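The methods section describes the discrete structure representation at length, but only in general terms. The central task, working out the structure tokens from the amino acid sequence alone, is never made concrete. Nothing conveys this as quickly as seeing an actual entry. For illustration, here is how one protein appears when written out as sequence plus structure tokens:
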Amino acid sequence: MLRERDVGHRVVVRRVVGLRAGRPVYSDALGELVELTETYLTLTTRQGRLRVPLAEVHRAKRVPADRRPSVTAVTELELAADEAWPAPTRARLGDWLLRAADGWTGRANSALPVGDPDRPLPSALDAVERWYADRGQPALVNTPLPLAAPVGAELDRRGWDSRPPVLVQTMPLAALIAATGGPADLAAAPGGWVVELAAAPSDDWLAVAAGRKGDLPEAARHVLTAVDQVRFAHVYDGSTLAAIGRGTVTGSGRWLGLCLIEVLPAARRQGLATRVIRALADWAAEVGATDAFLQVEQRNTPACALYRKLGFTTHHTYLTRISPLTPAPSPC
């Protein structure tokens, strides 16, 4: 039988769904175990969330993890994420992307080594270091794993450090909408909260984002707003902003990207993060998106627990690698 440690893993459940000629009829379900209580278990399946009373469970066990995502799948998702967080200064090194945004966030100020850099790997990383040195910035490289494992090995040889692992998590958009409740009344949610979606962030929204991400230079405003399809969620308690969120639709219209889901301390533990996610999911579905993704630090246990409960699973991970030294800009 399953135990608490199995939460977050893929499981197969055989359950009793009826009787035929006096004998039980069984049905099997495969999905990620997102909740286990004394009376029921909850799975996220391809068809959505499935809650099964333990009294109906005949047998349940963990199954081996799916094979790793393909190179193409990781590349496509990484490029959709880059489109959702667009650095204002950009260049290419073969297929690799070089990105800078006045130092605001690691994602917008790092190289993305997907594809062929059109030169040997050591020469490519030398060029990355020069590009960032010319801008007076430390060189950062985001290494999606396992896709960029050879890049990571070369950076290890060079003595580069790394930031905590980041989980890139995904789920079908229809399942996300199902997981966040019935039809949402976003204009006037229960409890007096008001959820609004806007094409541009308010000053209050930006102030909350600045509190989480640091001061907002002009480059930061570009990163936040320079996406064709973007919405900024504002949750108000009267005239007071209580929570924010940002959603983008990128990757040829497939992917809803969720980020900056933030609830102010006085309004926490009231389900506002889920309301924000639902509002953005409904909007994305209306414009044709079919899947959702987000990026969350593995050490952010409260956020990981929320996303796991909603049904997100880890597609792949990445590390942000940091040059041990900031070289001086080149003279040319």
About this structure: The CA atoms of residues 153 and 160 lie 10 Å apart. The chain has three domains: 4-62, 71-165, 168-315.
